[in-house]
Amino acid sequence: DKGNHRHFMAKEIYEQPETISHTLSHYVDMGAEKVAIRETLPFNFADLTRLTMSACGTAFYAGAVAKYWFERYARLPVDLDVASEFRYREPPMQKGGLSLFISQSGETADTLAALRYCAGQGQHVASLVNTLESTIARESGVVFPILCGPEIGVASTKALTAQLTALASLAIAAGRARGSIDEATEAELVRALTALPSAVSEALAAEDQIRDISKRLSKAKDVLYLGRGPMFPVAMEGALKLKEISYIHAEGYAAGELKHGPIALVDEAMPVIVVAPSDELVDKTLSNMQEVAARGGKIILVTDAEGARTVGHGVADIIEIPHVHSFVAPILATIPVQLIAYHTAVFMGTDVDQPRNLAKSVTVE
Ligand code: M6R
After folding, report:
1. For the segment 273-285, what is each residue's pLDDT rounded down to a tens digit?
2. Which residues contact 257 (CB under 8 A, 6 or more apart)?
3. Fewer CB atoms inside 10 Å of the end CB: C or N, the chain?
4. Residues near 153 by Cβ (< 8 Å), separated by ≥ 6?
5. Which residues form the active site (predicted)?
């Protein structure tokens, strides 16, 4: 049932304030401002020397954001790879590490093969899934649910924000167990998570403006997405979503890589979507935006009020999202990139929920 929405994807985008709350209520004790992991862990975060994550597509980008969190807040070294590369690379692994597999469906063939490889290498196997009765869940030592309800649209939306919410909670738990964050920091990060559902509702209110921008985007041949730090995976996710459902060519790049190649593409016909809420890196991104503007590129800036004030001068299109703690900013920043892809696809007249050539669950290699 699509409710009042034209597509399941729109319904799932709009469900996110509730689905994030639901995921949070599983992982967080809001009153105590603490993370409370209910699953029995077959390992101790404090003893881990390494975390290895593998996933595909959007689930891989969830892992790519989480890598920043586990490194920064838990001081845990992280290896991350797309499952289809990881499984054939057969990397040597030190016994006792934790391998975490992220999959909405729990049936992705490459992710499952990566899991079996890691189990054979003496790793603790954990998975983060939506479908609890799936093969990946069954073969895992511990299963972390994301609890966002069935996702029907082929383009993943609410599963991503649920994966990120759960991963953020796990990173806090790991940080506490490893002594790299104290109780006060845990409380600060938990408050940041608790503020998310209402911030997501506010971000969804930019829909009319995004529809106008998307109308112009639907005429573009290529679109570049840029981000730094945890916004880099958000940029890649934005590009993937646009490709999947609008069939417009898009690329996500680390903003600092711009001058190492992609800037050669920038001209008046090239929209460049810069995902840059105010943080310690926003000034660096400003210089990349100036490089784009100097070549006539059309910038669409996703930022908060502070970012608009400090780096938004001369930018015609600013999509403003509420200011949140930088810890949860990548979760919030996925909302406008989802809406951009959705509305562009609607203008293109594509089959949004069943895009050509794609399957919801990729059970072949
Ligand atoms: O079910 P999974 O999370 O393992 O699926 C992984 C990818 O196939 C999936 O995220 C895909 O990239 C989506 N179509 C993205 O919107």
Report:
1. 999 999 988 888 8
2. none
3. N
4. 7, 8, 9, 12, 352, 353
5. 360 (for fru-6p isomerization activity)
